Amino acid sequence: MKMTEKTRNYYNNLIVLIGACMSVFQLYTGIFGSMEAFYQRTLHLFFAMVLVFMIYDYKGKAGNRFKLWDSVYILLTVVTMGYLLVQHDYLVSGRFYYIDELTGLQIVLGVVAIIVLLEATRRVVGPQLPIVAVAFILYSFVGDYMPGFLNHQGSTLGLFLDVQYLTTAGIFSTPIAISATYLFLFILLGAVLAETGFGVFLLDFSTALAGRTRGGPAKVAVVSSGLVGSISGSAVANVVTTGTFTIPLMKRVGYKPHFAAAVESAASSGGQIMPPVMGVAAFLMAEFTGIPYIEIVKFGLLPGILYFLAVLFMVDFEAAKMGLKGLPKEELPNLLKTLRRTYLALPLVLLIALLILGYSPNFAGSFAIVLAFVIGFFDKENRFNAGKVVNALASGAKQSLVVVLSCATAGIIVGVVGLTGLGANFTRIVVDLAGGSLALALFFTMITGIVLGMGLPTGAMYVIQVALIIPALIEMGLPVYSAHMFVVYFAAISMITPPVCLASFAAAGIAGCDAMKAGWTGMRLGAAAYIVPFIFAYEPALLLVGSFDRVLLAAVTAIVGIYLLSAGLQGYFLKRINLLQRVIAIAASLVLIKPGLYTDLLGFALLALLVIWQLIEKRASGGKSSAPLN
Length: 630
Fold this sequence. Notes:
Elements: H1 5-32, H2 37-55, H3 68-86, H4 88-94, H5 104-125, H6 128-141, H7 157-165, H8 174-196, H9 198-210, H10 216-232, H11 235-253, H12 257-270, H13 281-289, H14 293-322, H15 335-339, H16 346-356, H17 361-378, H18 386-420, H19 422-434, H20 438-453, H21 458-468, H22 470-475, H23 480-493, H24 502-511, H25 515-525, H26 528-538, H27 548-570, H28 579-593, H29 597-620
Helix pairs in contact: 1-2, 1-8, 1-17, 1-18, 2-3, 2-8, 2-18, 3-5, 5-6, 5-7, 5-18, 6-18, 8-13, 8-17, 8-18, 9-10, 10-11, 10-12, 10-14, 11-12, 11-24, 12-14, 12-24, 12-25, 14-26, 14-27, 16-17, 18-21, 19-20, 20-21, 20-23, 21-23, 23-26, 24-25, 27-28, 28-29
């Protein structure tokens, strides 16, 4: 149905109003306390599904046309979610779930609700997650026909819908609970900060600091994309947001298009494992493990730093090989002028301070949002008015849709795993296949995570792994925090792992280069993330667990190791290095990253050999290098 310009404006204003209402509801419950769990989760999903069908067309694009079947989907959303809201008291306390038989109406509404949810998810997330969910749904009904550990007694339609639609064991289980309480608030915080100009401040600050160094724009991309990605929680969204500025800058100073795309995608994906926010991961981990959020952040600090140092080192070595320079001084933002806007970061400071003091994430996030609004109202350069406030609220709701729908659909999978006992069976098969070897189990987990993560949002992939894989790792003796961190890492870097590397594809579109070439280059830049998880699985010092001296030694040697890994992979150290020197650098890096006296001694011995060899070569060539060092 074609809209007139006037009708389209009314329609867009309605979307903004509904989005703002969703954000106000979430912010209210964040400050004054959540409603009853089932009610809050239902209303949360209700808002999100209506927005999806208003914003995204059947092709999954944000379109200007409103089709008749979109209004049908909205009506079905209102009916199916509205029934749960109206009948809330009866459903929560007036019936015996899993015992009382479902009425015909409840069965029809349950089936329709799942179909509509899967369609909403397909539109905003893509087809992969709904396909996985459908496979799990079918599995719940054909258990009698499945072989081996997949066999179960099967489920009736009534029991299945009871779990999925009428209780908090399926669609409205832990994933949507996290989204409906504090995860949404952190997305809203990012949207409000963006409206204050915080993103521009980060970019200017990074450019002022690193813009003049060799290959400076690439370093700016690493820093700014990592910081923004930590808040946004979406690698692809982060690429599209920051990559629009950073990729052309990188190309301008001489980086090849595929390398510029790889830098942006690697940095944006790494944001999901970088404190203080860690995208979706930290909140999910805190809920599933019961470990306080601030502890999760502590575990992720050193591995996150190592990841970004590796990317920065590789960017620097690439610039050295190519003889690239930084931006001209006249094009750099004034550092002192930029620092005057440091107050824009105060909401993040407040957020971290409240979390350290032990306040809940939803409380901390809510008051950080309030402070961001206060700053916006008093900021002379970018003062808030009513329009900006509403737009910020609506933007937060729109940005949350991928996360909300992913969590709801992941809840279907969680419900099936619990209903069929697949989780326990899967744990046994992983333990048996690994033959008691933790190393093999970790390898299987890595492969599973990367494969599942191809096309799935990080949060959804992590939830599936929580249900299927993590129990096996814990049973084999891996600490709970190590097991969850291990899975989160491979959930994040699946975004840059070919052949389906969504962040790399998005960056390649901006850079105008071959997507697979960008993907393989991004995988090389993110190489640390493929190695570090295996190390901290055996040595918790990399997760800041243990005595101070042990942690400090592990951190120092790991940083040196990451530097050598970058040198070996990029083929540059004090000068260009040959194949044997690259092998020595990589070998030294691996033994240095792994904490331990003998491995450290071996690593430093190899480092000394490499330095001496390179110095002799430089002296023999008259001290010349392929590019000047600075």
